[in-house]
Each structure stands twice: as structure tokens, then as C-alpha cells.
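User: Quick sanity check before I run a bigger batch. Here is a single chain. Can you write out its predicted 3D structure?
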Amino acid sequence: MRLENLNVDARDPRRLADFWAAALGAEPLTDNEAGVEVRLPLAGGRFLDLCFERVPDPSPAKSRVHPDLTGGVRQQEVVERLLGLGATPADIGQQDVPWVVLADPEGNAFCVMDEPEAYRGTGVLTSLILEGSDPGRDADFWAVATGWERVAGVPVPSLRHPSGTGPLLEFLTESGPKRGKNRMHLDVRPGPDDGPVTSRLLGLGAAVVADDPELPWTVYTDPSGNEFCILAPTA
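Assistant: Done. Predicted structure follows.
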């Protein structure tokens, strides 16, 4: 299994892709009427594609999936650079915390983190956050969906690629019931040796949302109702 995409609903995909490409140092990949994709290189030749899909009216509901960026000792400098790129300060009720909450040009909240020991070596993208009703259960589910492993020394259930490099997947307790579609979601792709992974995920609480045989992916929800896609397997 491979965590391949962070998919983002966008009114203006090109504008949002330009912001995130500059914020993360991602590389242009595709650009057409349907959307824009950029690629964030990760350690060991891996990558994460950020896919900005044109959606005329993205859900106004809070997305329970969001990225966290690395700040560390340069946190304020990073924040100022992001503000210069078009981010704005955001208040999501965070109060007195050591991270800074911003919103991208379409209002999607994200955080610029300090750098605790567990985040060493993640690169520019510290983590991807998923909120749900049972973080421990969700971490077990996503360990199967991604092939990633549990991380010690982090205060919330977390996963990381077996190489020990790249961003973490962190699972937080939801602040309230899910309302509407998440504006961000993850896509995973099975490999040729992954076997009946879809059946395993269904047994762990996944549910099918949309299965169009004309499309090379199927839309599911995880046990907490967060959307994700399983892409066509690699050859």
C-alpha cells in the first residue's frame, strides 16, 4: 500500500496549487480544466502528490483532514513567509498553543508546528491530521490502508512510513460530529502484492460511497466517516 495523494476540493485549483507548491517546495505535475497536481518529493524516492480538484462549491463544513507544516526554531520566519504567499491567521479555538494556525487562500486551516523530538526528520511537512471518533481504532485502520507503522513518543496515536522518514499521520479526537464532506482527503494505492486489502478495510469499518467502473478509483469512508479513495493497483 502507498499513501499517494492529498486531494483538495478547490474553487480555483491553480491558485491553490500555486500557494501549496510554494509553501512546500512541491514540483508542478499536471494542469488541466479538471484540476492541478503538484508533487512533494519525500525521502527514499517516495512522494506525495497534492491534487487540487475543481469543485464549484466546496463544502462549508470544517474539514477533519489537514496538513501541519514544520516550523521549529524558524517557526515565525516560516509563518511570515506563508503570510506573504497569501495565507491568513486563523482562529479555530486553539487558545494558548505552541503552534500557529493559518488558513490557505480558500480558507483551509493548517498549522505551523514547533519541532518536538518525535518530528525530527519529517521534512517540510510535519504531519497529516485526521480527526475521528476513536483515534486508536482509526490508527489501526490506516496502518492497514497505508502499510505505515505506529510511532512511539507522540502524545496521540500516530503512524509513519516504515523507513522512519517523512511526515506522520496523526489521529485526533473529533471536536464534534462530522458535517458535510471533508474538503481534503487521502488517496491510497495498492501494490501488486497487497492481496485483498479492500476486503480487509471493509472488515475494519470502511464503507463504499461511490464506485464508478469508468473511474480508476473507488470512494470510501473510514470508520469515523472520513472520505478516502482507493486507486487502481499498480501493475
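The radius of gyration is 17 Å.

User: Great, the batch can go ahead then.
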